[in-house]
Amino acid sequence: MNPIMVLIRKELKVEFRSLQGIVASAMLSFMILMSFKFSMYENSLLEGSGILWSSILLTGLGLITHISTRESERGTFELLKLSPISRYQLFLGRMTGSLFLLWILSTIIMIIYIILFENQFGNDIFLAYFVVLVGCIGLSAVGTLAASTATPLHGGWMITSLFAIPILLFTVIEAAIRCTDSLISGSSDFELAFMLLVLYNVVFVFGGAWLSEISD
Amino acid sequence: MIKLRAFFKSFGPKKVLRGLNLDIESGEIVTLVGNNGSGKTTLLRTINTLDSPDNYLTAEIDGFDLRHDSEEIRSRVGYLSHNPPFYPELTGVENLRLWLELNSIGDAESTARNFLAQVGLISFSDDLSGNYSRGMIQRLGFAMSISHSPTVLLLDEPFTGLDTKGIEILEEMLMKYSKDGCSIVLVSHQTPSYSTRTIKLERGEII
Q1: pTM of the entire structure?
Q2: Which residues form the ABC transporter domain (chain B) (predicted)?
Q3: Do the bridges between strand B77-80 and strand B64-65 make them parallel or antiparallel, or are there none, so unpaired?
Q4: Nearest Cα residue to A133 out of A49, A201, A207
């Protein structure tokens, strides 16, 4: 079996048997969305999809950091590094494993968001969901790269966020918000914003794989 | 076969390995002794590519260069660390199968069960490894270190936590692998009788 597939299967099996990351992240996202719900009611911020993406960004990074920290603390990251697979395969395997979990988390966040803030996307709800799934790719790539670098350090979970959030905010998240906002407002910006989002994803996935390979 | 010449490794200002020269032939069982902090574990971790050496004239495993052929070297080296890593959510056989699949070993399931039988864990193979005792984890770690048929075996205090039966199994297997031509480096505080040579490290130098 392809080593990337082996790593994805491992990641899913480990998470589904413990449910530590998904449950904690889903609860955190619920609390973040509830905080917005009660503190910003009747605020203009609710007219866009920024709250949705804030929740995905913060809890998604938390989930990826949790996965990476768990791997680092147990020493199993070293076990993976000892296997005779390329570093780019290791990165892609870990990134894709995290991505599957991120998709599950994002689905939960999307459902909570719609329950709490009503369906702002109208008939484009499934298109909005597709944008969320695509946006998670860049989030997973940057998060995995940042977490791999930072988690062996003291306070690694915080360093991961400090490193990843600024990079993601002005790239993937901005493009994704433009996409989903255009679905809400019905503007014609969607195609351009979506192309930008895909471009950022491609850059981060290939960049992450390349950096992993040369940093060995 | 391991060949090191003028092999250096430091962590920041601390020089851990100072120009080591070392030759270990196929079939040798070499015991590495030394006080705490003498560089024993660092030497094993740089040979297995987990840590990068600062510089060297020669660093080869079976003729492959440590820096340029790291993937080839990882496929040839088996490593048992002081605390063997494992996934507690996976069963013993799943842990071993994961390792075998990453090493592209065919029929990973039956190979994993075969190795678990060899280390005396077959009756616990479907139990979650999170419920294993320290000695069982050590046996699982040893099975992982040998299961991809390495030509060089690096063992960092392999007898930790093992009961008498476990030590017997491990010693028998070490002698078998040595006869098959595997180079074995054993970090231990005592030199076992079957060891062909003892090397003492002190402050990163062989004395």
Answers
A1: 0.92
A2: 2-207
A3: unpaired
A4: A201
A18 close to A70: Cβ distance less than 8 angstroms = no
DSSP output for B48-107: TTSS--SB-SEEEETTEETTTTHHHHHHHEEEE-SS----TTSBHHHHHHHHHHHTT-SS
Residues A176/A50, Cβ–Cβ less than 8 Å: no
CA–CA separation, A128 and A184 (whole Å): 9
Q: In what order do the strands lie in the sheet with B197-202?
A: B77-80, B152-156, B183-187, B29-34, B197-202, B205-206
Domains of chain B: 2-206 (3.40.50.300)
For chain A, the domains span 3-39+48-214
- Angstrom distance (rounded) from CA A6 to CA B96: 12
Work out the minimum CA distance from B99 to partner chain A, whole angstroms.
7
CB A83 within 8 A of CB B85: no
Stated as kind and residue range, the H or E segment containing B152 is: strand B152-156
* Per-residue pLDDT in tens (0 to 9) along chain A, 216 residues: 799 999 999 999 999 999 989 999 999 999 999 988 887 766 555 667 889 999 999 999 999 999 999 999 999 999 999 999 999 999 999 999 999 999 999 999 999 999 988 888 889 999 999 999 999 999 999 999 999 888 878 887 888 889 999 999 999 999 999 999 999 988 888 999 999 999 999 999 999 999 999 886
Chain B residues within 8 A of A85 when measuring between CB atoms = 71, 102
Q: Does B72 touch chain A (CB under 8 A)?
A: yes
How many Cβ atoms sit within 10 Å of the Cβ of residue B20? 22
